[in-house]
Predict the 3D structure of the following.
Amino acid sequence: MKFRVSAVQYHLHTISSFDEFAAQVTHYVRTAQEFEVDFILFPEFFTTQLLSIGDESGAALGIERLPEFTDAYLELFQGLARETGTHIIGGTHVTEKEGKLYNTAHLFYPDGRVATQPKIHITPTEVTEWNMSAGDGLTVFETDKGTIALLTCYDIEFPEIVRMAKARGADVIFCPSCTDDRHGFHRVRYTSHARAIENQVYVVTTGTIGSLPTVDFMRGNFGQAAVITPNDVPFPPRGILAEGEINDDMIITADLDLELLYKVREKGSVTTWRDRRTDLYTDWS
């Protein structure tokens, strides 16, 4: 099976209303749809742009206010997914449940369904500055294009969780990300390549760019989208199907061929998934 994916290098800047946010999101979705894509990926924490709307005094809203936009966020993305017939990974949005905040990835199906995956591994900044809580389970999602997983930013740096996703049938890992400097960006990027090689899966990743000068911990963003493959003969030599220009406002698009994954798992130059030594270490299946 083949299908087409796009990833958005989302430009963060100060806005004054939810309508401005909606217009920017709609622009990206309509741009991607001109390429007749099946999936669109937005970055982690891109809805923090809504905090720049500010309160009555003009000060930026705190992270605890972001769940107030959840209903509008859901309505916007559900409408766009239905209208375009596209699966949209709406990056992550901060949600609240039983008094706790979660950094939650959302998958919007073309038929209006919404699936969620809270971020499983939480960074020190998310814990100490934003009081985020960690998700406590992994879900893989069935689509008419195959099985996928949503693992957010720091999650991709842990081999075990991606191994679990592959063991449960995921062929594509969508990884929304948000990093504020080169070090963080390259941690996510390099480990995305490692996970693609280890598990012989595709990894689609993207990050925020631009700046929110009034929003704490979102003043700096360093991002680039990429569609990453295993490193084997059927794929590009560097394991990159497509990548954006670093810190540019843009969308990238590429075609994923699942049959190539199945072939390299069976008869590739290396067969890393098949050759795992479950007699020596835990098998996450």
Summary: The mean pLDDT is 97. The CA atoms of residues 66 and 94 lie 6 Å apart. The first strand starts at residue 2 and ends at 9. The chain has six helices and 15 strands.
